[in-house]
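new request in #modeling-help
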Amino acid sequence: MNPVLPGEIAIKSESDIVAARRTVRDAAMQVGFGMTDVTRIVTAASELARNVFKYAGEGAMTWRQLEEPGRMGIELRFIDHGPGIADVQLALQEGYSTGAGLGLGLPGAKRLMDELDIQTASGQGTTITLKKWRMI
Amino acid sequence: MNNESISVIKVRDILMVTMPSDPDDSTISSLQNKVLTAMERTDAKGVILDISTVETLDSFFARTVSETAQMVALMGGRTIVAGMRPAVAVTATQIGLTLKNIETSLNVERALDAATAERPRDPR
């Protein structure tokens, strides 16, 4: 199987959220994830891509394949220069939302993936890195 | 760019609403209006929402489905969500999407049986 080439797409319109989902689906399948994991990864990507568009207006998503002894994975990174997240702990709480959403986006993405890292500060933008692994 | 749209047809007294596999947010948002307008125009008793081709049900999509079902209920109809894929069900449960108060069916055929049965089930 050919390794997934790393890449980046801009998120600045609603249709880019669809494009992000499709890109992530293709990449996750190429890394060899099963259908349930592919669905988890795509759903997490959909939540975060929408957050970028909704809260920052625009940003980008990068993806790359991860390889370590005994396991392979995928890394997705969502980068924006929006308002940032004032209280990360609060934002990770289920049911908390500053928008009109269910407050399931960020905590949902965390549950669906193996690792989630947030770099943010008020006014400094947000970078969220997600990883999902599979044993080989 | 996105030419996939929601289809709404009336079968007996029921509105059969089919979601495309990967709808964008505007398409998802148009669900409420399409369904409610069709409810009024066709005098339908209920809605079957076929999501059998849907591969990603995120929180925005799920909230729209929930709200649409609530609105249909206010208009005196019932909504049955049909055909959720196994991987979608696993994912939805994991992130806490409950689709509260919404009836579900394994597929459209079973949903039609349930919807056209003599009496609707008691609401939960």
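bot summary: Chain A has a mean pLDDT of 92.
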